[in-house]
Amino acid sequence: MRKILLVETKLHLRQWPNMIFTIGLPLALLLGLGSLPDLAKPNPGMGGERYIDTQLPAQMTLLAVLTLACSVLPAVLVTYREQGVLRRMSTTPVAPGRLLAAQLIINLVVGTVSVFLLVVLGYVVLGAAMPKQFPGFVLVFLLGSAALLALGLVISSIAPTGKSAPGIGSVVMFPLMFVAGMWIPREAMPDALRAVSDYSVAGPFAQALRDTWAGHAPQPLHLIVMAAGLLAFGGIAIRLFRWE
Q1: Half-sphere exposure (Cβ direction) of 125: Cα atoms closer than 13 Å
Q2: What b/e string do you get for 207-219 counting C-beta neighbours within 10 Å, with b at 16 or more?
Q3: What is the mean pLDDT of the chain?
Q4: How much is the pLDDT for 40?
Q5: Where are the domains of the chain?
Q6: 3-12 long-range CB contacts below 8 Å, 24 or more apart?
Q7: CB 102 within 8 A of CB 77
């Protein structure tokens, strides 16, 4: 497992343009949108919270993780399959679970770097709030990110070609962003859409991030949904995994 992680880390570092895009896009959006004066004012519809203190950083965190899960991660594994790398690995003692776990761990580290920069630069440049419930924030980020990355592993398992992987990822990514409140705040959603959001993994992830950023403990239902998503998507990815 250590050898797999070492080799995959080296290969990921060679793909530095993807890493810069994954880290840079949410950060640029945070700093650009956060500089708008209206977003720095207390919002009565959000209980007096400022948009830049909870909603915006939570959504940019979600965007960073979804970009990794639905775009970067599937492209890597599907390309390995097309190039015959996985076929050669199938002759070694490497089990599918270990390879998938390594991909999940490496992308989780990249996501952590992205979120660290979001939090620090948001605070330094915009004066945005730091997560006030920090232990809960760390728990939510790790659990929610792992669940969404496991979904990315499912995409990797079913995508037939490297060219099709981003398309399938987009079909998954944009609806998840919608139900998570990227365009319509969850508070303004109709009851039916809010119910879908509550069980979409992305919705609980975004809401739990907002809660911990504002100093509240994450809701047990949100943690359960994310944990269930991690187990379900991880199991499906291993079951559907193909070496070639």
Answers
A1: 16
A2: bbbbbbbbeeebe
A3: 87
A4: 74
A5: 2-240
A6: 4/94, 4/98, 4/99, 4/102, 5/102, 5/105, 5/106, 8/102, 8/103, 8/106, 9/106, 11/76, 12/76, 12/106, 12/110
A7: no
Q: Own/partner pairs for 19-26, CB < 8 Å, 24+ apart? A: 19/110, 21/67, 22/64, 22/67, 22/68, 22/72, 22/110, 22/114, 23/64, 23/110, 23/113, 23/114, 23/117, 25/63, 25/64, 25/67, 26/60, 26/61, 26/63, 26/64, 26/67, 26/114, 26/118
- Decide: helix, strand or coil at residue 192: helix
User: Which residue's structure tokens are 């269930």?
Assistant: 228
Which amino acid type is present at position 139?
L
225 — pLDDT class (breaks 50, 70, 90): very high
Please determine, for residue 150, whether its predicted confidence score (pLDDT) is greater than 90: yes
Please give the C-alpha separations between residue 98 and each of 93, 103, 105, 237, in angstroms, as whole numbers: 10, 9, 10, 12
Q: Which pair of tokens denotes residue 185?
A: 């705040």
Task: Report residue 48's pLDDT band, with 50, 70 and 90 as the boundaries.
Answer: low
Only one residue has tokens 């915006």, namely: 56
Taking only the tens place, the pLDDT of each residue in 80-126 is 888 888 888 888 887 888 888 888 999 899 999 999 999 999 888 88
* Bridge partners, 50 (sequence order): 42
